[in-house]
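chain below, 116 aa
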Amino acid sequence: MPQCVDEIRKELTRLEQVVSQVRESWGYGGDEGENGFSADLGNEVQSAGERLVSLLEQVQRQVPVPDKLHRDMDWLLADLKPAIEYYRDLEEPDGGAASDIYERLGSGIDQVKQAL
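prediction:
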């Protein structure tokens, strides 16, 4: 298990860097996420969301976590997956839809950290 935990930590660090770069590029202010939003940024947010889903699922499979944290991860996944699907299905990128994904990234990263 230590090797898988190390890999999860590495991926988590990369994800945190991406989220930080997106925050700086977007100038994210929370008001429907439109401040500096672009299609490329939306794609970055979608990709970060997909990477987070993968990390959360990997943690749930490979790392023993307390029941409450496991339930919290399930709730987050139940919110995050449809937000990603919705964004993926849009004909044109939308800052508000990307914001729905972005707003869940921080809590998901925190949950992975708690599990490790």
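The CA atoms of residues 80 and 104 lie 7 Å apart. DSSP finds four helices and no strands in the chain.
thats it, cya
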